[in-house]
């Protein structure tokens, strides 16, 4: 259960190792017979169906172990990325994202994603470098003087989008968007709390850093507004 990468990698190896044989030997036979079947894709589809069976059996066993469940989701997302980008798998075919979209599994994924995002926010705001810009010494890069915590937070949101963008239904994607909105609001509250501690020194270093953070986040969210 703690090594889903074993069978996921094995399937990717089988697909890669058989592609030349399927293209050179099997596909011409299908073409000659007037079939529209793509041998390589059908081979991939059949192996993915085995993975879906395996996932359906394994997920109930690790649903309440955060570490194992997170590891499984991470490995499945890596597998899907390689399957589509390297092996040309079709989005209309069955995929692991359908299993991750099933209610009990999906709700658990959302819960765990939120838990780890909040932990990340705790650590980024308690870091000594939280209010310092990574690029403070490079003026042409650092026009907005973005503190490290704001940049890390927006990267966190971007990573979450990247993880859920291939979900098969819009309703599931919207639930993840809801999580992101919660995280933005949580970050806003945290900034407000820090700002209240700094009101006596409103021209101080940290107060200015908070204003820069808010400006940066608002600007990036406006840029993302065109991303459906």
UniProtKB/TrEMBL annotation:
Question: What processes does the entry annotate via GO biological process terms?
Answer: endoplasmic reticulum to Golgi vesicle-mediated transport; regulation of ER to Golgi vesicle-mediated transport; retrograde vesicle-mediated transport, Golgi to endoplasmic reticulum
Q: Name one Pfam family in it.
A: RINT1_TIP1
**Can you supply one Gene Ontology CC term for this chain's record?**
Dsl1/NZR complex
Protein name, UniProt field: RINT1 protein
